[in-house]
Amino acid sequence: xxxxxxxxxxxxxxxxxxxxxxxxxxxxxxxxxxxxxxxxxxxxxxxxxxxxxxxxxxxxxxxxxxxxxxxxxxxxxxxxxxxxxxxxxxxxxxxxxxxxxxxxxxxxxxxxxxxxxxxxxxxxxxxxxxxxxxxxxxxxxxxxxxxxxxxxxxxxxxxxxxxxxxxxxxxxxxxxxxxxxxxxxxxxxxxxxxxxxxxxxxxxxxxxxxxxxxxxxxxxxxxx
Length: 224
Ligand code: SF4
Ligand code: SF4
Description:
Order of helices and strands: HHEHEEEEHEEHEHH
Number of strands: 8
Distance between the termini: 113 Å
CATH architecture of one domain: 2-Layer Sandwich
Strand content: 5-15%
Structural class: alpha+beta
Radius of gyration: 30 Å
Oligomer: single chain
Bound molecules: iron/sulfur cluster
Strand order of the largest sheet: 6-1-8
Helix content: 25-40%
C-alpha cells in the first residue's frame, strides 16, 4: 500500500520516543511491544555522547615521561605511507647535518599534520614501528580558518602515553606489552654501556695489570 512504509517509519520513531521515558517503557511492555533504545540524540554541547574505544578522529604523537621524551624518531615512514600526503616531517640535525639525539633517539624538529586533509584512515598508526603515533578521540577541533589553523604542529600533536591509556585502555595495554621487552633490552644495553664507560674512566693504577704478552702463547707450547 502506498505510504505504508512512511507510516511504519513514523511508528518506529514514536515507539523510540515513548521508550525514552520510564512510564513509556512500562506502557510499551504492557501492550507487548519492544521498548527500543529510546532517544539516541543528546543535547550537545552540554551533553556529550560516550564514544566507543575504537572511535577515531585525528592522530597525535605519544610521549612517555615528558614531551621531550617523544617516541617518534622522525623515520618518515608515516609521511611516505599517508595516502593524502598530509604529514610533513623534518629530523632535528646539528650544524654539520648529522642527526641530533635525545634520550638516545633521533627526533623530529618539525612534525606537522594538516588535519583539513587527513581522512582519519589510521594508516600512519599501523605503519609506525615505534608506536609513536595513535588516533585521538578529540573531535572538538573546529576553527574558522582552513590554513595554518588546521595545520597541527609537533607541540600541538604531542600527548602523553597516560592520556592514550585513558582514551583507549585496551589498545594502550597491547602497546605497552609490545614495548616492554624493547624497553628492558634498551635498559640493559644502557647499563652495559655505562659500566664500560666507568671502567674506561678509571685511573690506570686501578685497572688490572695487562697480561705479560710473553705468557700469551704459553698454553700452546713452543711452535718451533
Ligand atoms: S610517527 Fe612513527 S612512523 Fe612516523 S616518523 Fe615518527 S616514528 Fe616514524
Ligand atoms: S590518519 Fe591517514 S590521512 Fe590522517 S595522517 Fe594518518 S595516514 Fe594520513
